[in-house]
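pls design
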C-alpha cells in the first residue's frame, strides 16, 4: 500500500480523530501532537490487515491521548490557579446542528470530564459521544470488554449527576444576549450588565500564574459585574481590539493587540449568562489562530 493511501484515509478522518483526542486531553496543542505521533505509527501499518479504518485509527489515537494524559498529570497537579481546557476556535456554526457534538466540546462538559480518571474519560468519550462498541473501546484502553462496560456505566453516572441539563439557546437568542452584553460591557453600563447575569453567574479564570487573573472562581452577579467593569475599563482597552468568535460552540470574545490577551467564553441559559471562562494563560492561546473542524 502506498503512503498516499495512508495519508488519504487519515486526512479523511482527521476531524473525527482530532475531536476524540481534544475531548480526552482538553488541549488543542497536545491533541495536534498526539495526532502527529499517531500518524507516524499509522504510516507503518500494513493496510491489508486493517478491517475497519475508523475503528483502527480511533483506537490508535486514543492510546496516544492516554499516554499524553499520563505525562501531563504532574503538570496539572502543580498548576497555579484554576485549570481550564484550551479554547477551541471553530468554524462558525460548525457543531451547532449536532446537539450531542456541541455539548461534548462545550467548556462546561470538558471541565466536568476533567473530574474523571483518564480511562473513564476515554471510555465515556468513545462510547457516549462517538458510539464505538465495547470491543473496540476495550482494545483502545487495554481492558476487557466487561471491564469497559463497568467503566462506561460509572463514568455515565458521574457525568449525569454533575451536569446541568443542556438547553442550548437558539442562535437568535444567543446573538441578541451577546450583543447586549458587548454593548453594556464596552460602555461601562453596570445596570445593563447586571440585567444579563444569572444570580449565581460564575467567572473562572485560567492564567497558570503567567498573567494577572483571579485564581479562584468568582460567584454572584455583583462580584462578576465588578470583574467585568475592571476588565472593560476604557484605559485598559486602549490599543486593544475585541473580536467575537465561536469557541467550543459558544460565543467568545478575543481580546488582543500586538499579542493575544485572552479568550473569554460566555455560557447562556434561560436568557441569562451563567458562566464566563477566561483563558489568559499565553500558552493556551497559541492555537487560537485558525478555526478547526470537528466531527463525530
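designed seq:
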Amino acid at each position: 500500500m502506498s503512503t498516499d493511501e495512508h495519508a488519504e484515509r487519515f486526512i479523511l478522518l482527521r476531524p473525527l480523530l482530532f475531536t476524540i483526542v481534544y475531548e480526552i486531553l482538553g488541549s488543542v496543542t497536545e491533541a495536534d501532537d498526539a495526532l502527529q505521533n499517531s500518524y507516524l505509527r499509522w504510516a507503518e501499518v500494513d493496510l491489508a490487515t486493517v478491517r475497519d479504518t475508523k475503528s483502527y485509527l480511533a483506537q490508535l489515537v486514543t492510546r496516544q491521548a492516554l499516554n499524553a494524559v499520563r505525562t501531563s498529570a504532574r503538570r496539572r497537579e502543580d498548576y497555579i490557579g484554576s485549570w481550564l481546557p484550551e479554547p477551541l476556535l471553530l468554524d462558525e456554526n460548525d457543531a451547532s446542528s449536532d446537539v450531542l457534538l456541541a455539548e461534548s466540546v462545550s467548556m462546561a462538559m470538558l471541565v466536568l470530564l476533567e473530574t474523571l480518571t483518564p480511562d473513564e474519560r476515554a471510555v465515556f468519550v468513545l462510547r457516549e459521544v462517538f458510539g464505538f462498541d465495547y470491543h473496540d473501546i476495550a482494545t483502545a484502553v487495554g481492558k476487557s470488554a466487561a471491564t469497559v462496560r463497568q467503566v462506561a456505566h460509572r463514568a455515565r453516572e458521574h457525568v449525569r449527576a454533575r451536569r446541568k441539563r443542556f438547553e442550548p439557546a437558539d442562535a437568535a437568542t444567543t446573538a441578541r444576549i451577546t450583543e447586549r452584553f458587548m454593548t453594556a460591557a464596552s460602555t461601562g453600563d453596570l445596570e445593563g450588565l447586571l440585567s444579563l447575569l444569572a444570580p449565581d453567574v460564575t467567572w473562572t479564570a485560567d492564567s497558570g500564574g503567567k498573567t494577572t487573573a483571579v485564581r479562584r472562581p468568582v460567584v454572584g452577579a455583583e462580584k462578576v459585574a465588578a470583574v467585568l467593569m475592571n476588565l472593560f475599563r476604557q484605559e485598559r482597552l486602549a490599543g486593544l481590539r475585541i473580536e467575537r468568535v465561536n469557541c467550543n460552540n459558544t460565543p467568545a470574545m478575543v481580546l488582543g493587540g500586538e499579542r493575544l490577551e485572552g479568550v473569554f467564553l460566555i455560557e447562556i441559559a434561560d436568557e441569562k449568562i451563567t458562566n464566563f471562562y477566561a483563558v489568559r494563560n499565553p500558552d493556551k492561546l497559541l492555537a487560537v489562530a485558525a478555526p478547526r473542524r470537528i466531527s463525530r
